[in-house]
Amino acid sequence: MPLKHLSSLICLSCLICLGVCRTVAAEELIVSGAASLINAMAEIKTAFENANPQWQVFANFAGSGQLLQQIEAGAPVDVFVPADRETMDRAQKAGFIDEASRVDFTGNDLMLVVPIDAVDINSLSDLANPRVGRVALGEPDAVPAGSYTKQVLVKAGLWQQLEAKMVYGLSVKQALDYVALGEVDAAFVYATDARLASRKVRVVANMTGHNPIIYPVALLKSCVHQEAARAFLTFLQSSAGQAIMRQCGFKQLDAAPNKN
Question: Residue 97 falls within a domain, yes or no?
C-alpha cells in the first residue's frame, strides 16, 4: 500500500478513535471542598460516579478561605462546599453562588487533641500551663476550624493568654498533622479528623462555646455543568449520601437540610 494512503488511513483511524473517546468520556464536575471533607468526599465521589457513570467528579480541597480566594480569582468551580456558613455568606454576598441552590447538609464537632502519649493535658485550662508549648489551630481569618477555636478560647478567657503559643495552619488538616507528628503539644481539630488519626492523637475534650459547625453547599453562578452539579447536590442530601457522611463521622443535622 502506498505510504500516503497508509498515512491517510492512520489519520482516519485516529479521528474515529477521538470521536469515540469524546462520546464515552465522562463529563467532569469540579467541586471545591473544605479540607476536612477529603475522606468523606472520596466516598461520595465513588458512590456518585457509580450511580452516574456519565459524570466524573474532580475535587479540589483546601482551607475554606483559600477556596473562596480561588473562586474570586476566577478558578473554574461548579460546586462550593466550605466548612462554615460564614464563608458561604461571603461568597453569596459577593455574588458568586446560586442562592436558590444553597443548602446545609451536614455538621461536625470541634475537639482538643494531644499526641497519643501526652500526659500533661487533660482539660482546656491545662493549655495555660507553662509546661505546654505550642498549640496548633487553623488560621482564624481563613480556616473555619480556627474561627470556631477562637470563639471557644475567647469565651473561656484564654485567647490572649495562649496567643504566644499558637501555631496557625492553612487548613484543619495541617493543624492535625502538627499534633500527629508531635510538632505541637495540642491542637484543635474536627471530630472527623481526630477519628482518622486515632492511633496518633488522643481526644482531650469536645469543645463547646462556638457557633454550630454546619457545612453548606451551593452551585456557583458560573457553574458550567448544571445537570451534573444539581444531581450531585441531590445525592449529598439523599439517604445514601447522608449515610456516607455519618459513616465518616459527620453529624446528621437535627432537621431536614436547611435552605438559606
Answer: yes
Predicted local distance difference test score (pLDDT) of residue 258? 54
Residue appearing with cell numbers 470541634: 110
Look at residue 258 and tell me if it is in a domain. no
How does pLDDT run across 148-204, given as a tens digit for each residue?
Answer: 999 999 999 999 999 999 999 999 999 999 999 999 999 999 999 999 999 999 999
Q: Are residues 136 and 225 in the same domain?
A: no
Helical axes 144-155 vs 85-93, angle rounded to 10°: 120
* CATH code of the domain covering residue 186: 3.40.190.10
For residue 175, which phi and psi values (nearest 5 degrees)?
-60, -40
Residues 6+ apart with CB under 8 A from 105: 215, 216, 217, 236, 237, 241, 242, 245, 253, 257
Query: Strand pairing of 166-169 and 103-108?
Result: unpaired
Query: Domain containing 97: what range?
Result: 3-106+214-247
Nine cell digits for residue 60: 479540589
Q: Kind and range of the H or E element at 90?
A: helix 85-93
pLDDT of residue 170: 92
Helix%, strand%, coil% for the chain, nearest 5: 45, 25, 30
Structural domains in the chain (count) = 2
Residues 183 and 117 in one domain: yes
